[in-house]
UniProtKB/TrEMBL annotation:
GO terms for biological process: RNA modification. The lineage of its organism: Eukaryota, Viridiplantae, Streptophyta, Embryophyta, Tracheophyta. Pfam families: DYW_deaminase, E_motif, PPR, PPR_2. PANTHER family: PENTATRICOPEPTIDE REPEAT-CONTAINING PROTEIN (PTHR47926), TETRATRICOPEPTIDE-LIKE HELICAL DOMAIN SUPERFAMILY, DYW DOMAIN-CONTAINING PROTEIN (PTHR47926:SF373). The keyword Transit peptide applies. It comes from the Eukaryota. This is DYW domain-containing protein. Residues 629-720 form the DYW domain. InterPro entries: DYW_dom, E_motif, PPR_At4g14850-like_plant, PPR_rpt, TPR-like_helical_dom_sf.
Length: 720
């Protein structure tokens, strides 16, 4: 019979192998300890390598070092098998330097050892070192790379955006026949996608003799990440049609594509599919579903998904808050942010960047100060994205001086930070300051982007800086190689049109290298109304109607131009066309926020609980401003008697909001109004005089810009 010690040794080894198979490190260590203390069952080399594999899998550096010490004590650490396992363990514990030291001490290095180091460098983000090792293994030891080497080094090529190196690896794979292996070809096409060569990746994909779900996922994800949502979705549908197993990776890419394209019906089909294959418990998939529905402008469906997520992560909350913000549901976004805090979910910088624009939209200075203080308490106020959002928020809350103070305090100024401040000045009518800041930006070495130019052109437009605007528009392409977009062209037409240069604006449109969009002709139509040019207005409107606008604002604008020219038959014709198309005039509204309550007023509205007091205060205001020269400007109202015109003007939403603000606030308090349309001439003149007779500053944010009324004057200098 075998000696009793033999049974004990076999038993200890079996226990250790069993624990290793279960990834049970404590059990394996217990078996190792028993083996070490047994006189008849000393550990062998395989024992140590098994322990090192477990340490690597669990990233347990301390235990790995202890095993290394045991190997060294037994003089086994330089053995090829042991050294390779040690190098692998150190690499997976994020200690590539230690892995390299073990590797360098090996007297003989085989391909497995080289592969371990290549993979270790790649895994730790040391792409250059990983690629260098592949070269050295051939030059120093004459080791020919195998499929493991290629699959290990290719992610390093992706991290380094080394397209040339990827091509070399690809060529080697083809010559060696490794491209027939599905894992190698999948790794190659994945790297091409990550290097932006998605067409080459597709060629690799199409030539693959066999594809698994990982191959399909890599290609679909590659299209999605390279901005080709259409092809990503088409390939996903083909994948489903061919019966390939769909995984969370392909579903995530498909949802992203549906969101980018705004394809609600396709998104719903993906939703049904993921439910059938049991991915509804995958929180990452559900978060992507929330984002997809939000991008398809269905925050109601996004909210349903959000409510169904049992274990919400911070990303879940962020996705829902951002969805509400981007879809104009600012108050819902703020309420969600409050709920998030009550649930003790700690916000991050992305949370704040999602909720701050909602507060900017609400335009309440008190809430703006609160979120600013909160970001300071959370130590996120110097995050460049949070800081930029705060600058933009203060500007949109009418506090451009605070925005500038924050801008000056920034430790880091990203291009988006400069853009926010330039845009803030422009929207408040401080065009010259915006231009000065733009010049300072260029002097600092920061390169402007398309948004920078849009902001500075808009600032020039609001301030009537025609020469500067022309110069910057030319500079955009000539000095920075940036192609103007439709918004840039529209802003240039607006700049020229506001300044009365209608012929130049029309000529500018005719010379555009791309087909003008609705926004370009819309800017021209607005300029024609301002300067009463019926002929060009008709031309512009005709082009707009051919493009099929969804809103009735352009029909209303044309009708008003005809009415100002007493062309009543044409007015009737435009109104009839509106009715046939089912288009309606956008109702004007104004809001004033007092003590955390938002009060909304519509033109002619009488449903406010203090309507009687509001109209009484407004009547008194009209008498007071008439005493200092107010004369109603009735040009925008037609088809009624003069006394009725004046009455209609007096019920414009901004006048009602201002009257209510005067009733509810103490003398000297600034009144802040937000309006959804451009302020009309009459309300602009009246508000100037109201600021004079009441001694109040009134800040009005309309759809285009801010107006600061004080002492009978407006910051826009009557140029808006």
């Amino acid at each position: 019979p075998p000696p009793a010690g033999g049974h004990a040794a076999a038993d200890h080894h079996a226990r250790l192998r069993s624990a290793a198979a279960r990834s049970d490190l404590p059990g394996a260590l217990a078996a190792f300890a028993a083996m070490s203390s047994s006189a008849s069952a000393s550990p062998v080399l395989r024992t140590f390598t098994s322990l090192l594999k477990l340490c690597a899998a669990r990233a347990d550096l301390a235990t790995g070092r202890a095993v290394h010490a045991q190997l060294a004590a037994r003089g086994l650490s330089a053995e090829s098998l042991a050294a390779t396992a040690l190098a692998n363990m150190y690499a997976k514990c994020r200690r590539p330097g230690d892995a390299r030291r073990v590797f360098d001490r090996m007297p003989v290095r085989d391909r497995v050892a080289w592969n371990a180091l290549v993979a270790g460098y790649a895994r730790n983000g040391l792409a250059g070192a990983a690629m260098e090792m592949v070269v050295r293994m051939q030059e120093e030891d004459g080791e020919r790379p195998d499929s493991v080497t290629l699959v290990s080094v290719l992610p390093a090529c992706a991290d380094a955006q080394a397209l040339r190196a990827c091509r070399e690896v690809h060529g080697f794979a083809v010559r060696a026949g490794f491209d027939e292996l599905v894992n190698v070809s999948t790794a190659i096409l994945d790297v091409y996608c990550k290097c932006g060569a998605v067409e080459v990746a597709r060629a690799v994909f199409d030539r693959m003799p066999g594809k698994n779900s990982v191959s399909w996922n890599a290609m679909i994800k590659g299209y999605a990440e390279n901005g080709d949502a259409t092809e990503a979705l088409a390939l996903f549908k083909r994948m489903v049609g061919e019966g390939v197993d769909v995984t969370d990776v392909s579903v995530l890419a498909a949802l992203h594509a549906c969101g980018e394209l705004g394809y609600l019906d396709e998104g719903r089909r993906v939703h049904e599919l993921l439910m059938r294959i049991g991915l509804e418990s995958n929180v990452s998939v559900m978060n992507a579903l929330i984002t997809m529905y939000s991008k398809c402008k269905r925050t109601d469906l996004a909210a349903q998904v959000f409510d169904e997520v049992r274990y919400k992560t911070r990303i879940s909350w962020n996705a829902m808050i951002l969805g509400c913000t981007q879809n104009g549901r600012s108050e819902d976004a703020v309420r969600l942010f409050s709920r998030m805090q009550l649930k003790n979910v700690k916000p991050d910088s992305f949370t704040l960047v999602s909720v701050i624009p909602a507060l900017a939209d609400i335009s309440d200075p008190l809430q703006a100060r609160w979120i600013h203080g909160y970001s300071i308490r959370m130590h996120l106020d110097q995050d460049v994205y949070v800081l930029t959002a705060l600058i933009d928020m203060y500007a949109k809350c009418g506090r451009v001086s605070i925005a500038r103070s924050l801008f000056k305090s920034a430790r880091e100024r990203h291009v988006i930070t400069w853009n926010a401040m330039i845009h803030g000045y422009g929207s408040h009518g401080f065009g010259k300051v915006a231009v000065e800041l733009f010049e300072e930006m260029k002097s600092s070495g920061r390169v402007p982007n398309e948004t920078t130019f849009l902001s500075v052109l808009s600032a020039c437009s609001h301030a009537g800086l025609v020469d500067e605007g022309r110069k910057y528009f030319s500079s955009m392409n000539e000095d920075y190689g940036l192609e103007p977009g439709m918004e840039h062209y529209g802003t240039m037409v607006d700049l020229l049109g506001r300044a009365g240069k209608l012929d130049e604006a029309w000529s500018f449109i005719q010379k555009m290298p791309v087909d003008p969009g609705i926004s370009v002709y819309g800017a021209m139509l607005g300029a024609c109304k301002l300067h009463k040019n019926v002929e060009l207005a008709e031309e512009s409107a005709q082009r707009i109607f051919e493009l099929g606008p969804d809103e009735g604002v352009y029909h209303v604008l044309l009708a008003n131009i005809y009415a100002n020219a007493s062309m009543w038959k044409d007015v009737a014709r435009v109104r009839t066309a509106m009715e046939k198309k089912g288009l309606q005039k956008t109702p004007g509204w104004s809001i004033v926020q007092l003590k955390n309550e938002i009060h909304t007023f519509y033109s002619g509205s009488t449903n406010h609980q203090q309507a009687k007091d509001i109209y009484a205060r407004l009547a008194k205001l009209i008498e007071e401003i008439k005493a200092v020269g107010y004369v109603p400007d009735t040009d925008s109202i037609h088809d009624v008697e003069d006394d009725v015109k004046a009455q209609l003007l007096n019920t414009h939403s901004e006048k009602l909001a201002i009257a209510y603000g005067l009733i509810r606030t103490s003398p000297g308090t600034t009144i802040q109004i937000k309006k959804n349309l451009r302020v009309c001439n009459d309300c602009h003149n009246a508000t100037k005089l109201i600021s004079l007779v009441t001694g109040r500053e009134i800040i009005m944010r309309d759809i285009q810009r801010f107006h600061h009324f004080k002492d009978g004057k407006c910051s826009c200098g009557d140029y808006w």
